[in-house]
Amino acid sequence: MEESDSPDARTMPESHSALAAIEAHVPGHTVLCDRHSTVERPDIFTETHIMGDDTRVLTVRAEHCEALAARHIAHVAVVDAASPYTVVRTHLSGAFMQVCLGGEGHTLLDGRWHSHTRGYASFAPAHVLHAFHCLPGKRWKLCWVRFMPTSPRSLAGAMTPSLRRFDGRPLEHAVRGLYHEVSSGGDPGSTAIWVDIIERYVARMVDPWQREPRLNTMWNIVLADLGRPWQLEELAELANISPEHLRRLCWQNFGRSPGRQLTAMRVARAAHELVTTQRKIEAIARDVGYANPFTFSNTFKRLTGFRPSEYRSRPKN
User: Could you write out the DSSP letters of every residue in 111-146?
Assistant: First the structure.
């Protein structure tokens, strides 16, 4: 299946398409030049956590909230950030959802930098390269949910990187409500209610195909046999819809074509195998549908920033 199935140009807003660019790599950072500006990027090969003096964070962690631990959520937070706020996770052990509440920052997904503005949420599955940072002179208000490695949403193939429309204000209110409840003593019944609300809003973002039964059935079959050379017509037949309608549903629910969604699922499964097993890279490539190891290596690097061998040898933070 071709990865480059294109949606109607109106499907995605310009600011959330890939920042078409010339990329120049220099030691310590990446400079990306789009038609509007030049932005200095963090070094995506080095684990980085920079808060800065002007960034404020409200966080609730599972070790202080049994209800979060029961849902396999490591922590939730509301952030009001300013430059030099930067996070690079070269080994994201658990899936991560982040919602922009205001301002603008940049987020790395699918191996590309995206403008992340109000009304959009990003999702990064476990074991992918993940990074985001503030822009100079701009504040960036965020709300996030970090899942434990044991969460179903952190399992191989459970979700792929995505950036889609999402109103994060109700989620923000739920996180703030949980924070104040835990800070004031943490009544177990009340904290459980707040966590349940958080979980329900998270599900709206990270379980898009669950809302569309035809996609749910189709992608679950694909997940069970990623090594098969799937064709668009076969997928459409599984969903009992036309190929064109399948394209529209995938762009509507995932922000990408069926071909790119399949590629993202294959790379997510391969990344999980690379860090959780010692199987040969060639065997992993075959299992996820790549007979040619060079094609697999190039595709993997494009989406994660690393060659498969580099990815496996990274420090496990």
Answer: TEEEEEETTEEEEE-TTS-EEEEEPTT--EEEEEEE
Q: What's the CA gap between 96 and 84, in Å, rounded?
A: 21
Q: Which residues of the chain have pLDDT under 50?
A: 2, 4-36
Residue 293: partners with Cβ closer than 8 Å, 6 or more residues away: 281, 282, 285
Q: Which of 142, 177, 207 corresponds to the end of one domain?
A: 207
Residue 211 confidence (pLDDT): 65
Provide the pLDDT for residue 256: 79
What's the pLDDT score for residue 293?
93
CB 246 within 8 Å of CB 232:
yes
Find residue 102's DSSP bridge partners. Answer: 141
Domain harbouring 82, CATH code: 2.60.120.10
Q: What is the pLDDT of residue 17?
A: 33
Say which residues have a Cβ less than 8 Å from residue 42's Cβ, sequence separation at least 6. Answer: 29, 30, 48, 86, 88, 131, 133
Tell whether 172 and 309 lie within a shared domain.
Answer: no
Q: Which CATH number belongs to the domain containing residue 246 in this structure?
A: 1.10.10.60
Question: What does the H/E/C string look like for 252-304?
Answer: HHHCCCHHHHHHHHHHHHHHHHHHHCCCCHHHHHHHCCCCCHHHHHHHHHHHH
Is 213 in contact with 219 (CB distance < 8 Å)? no
258 upstream amide cis, omega within 30 of 0 = no
Task: Give the Cβ contact number of residue 172 at 10 Å.
Answer: 18
pLDDT of res. 285: 96
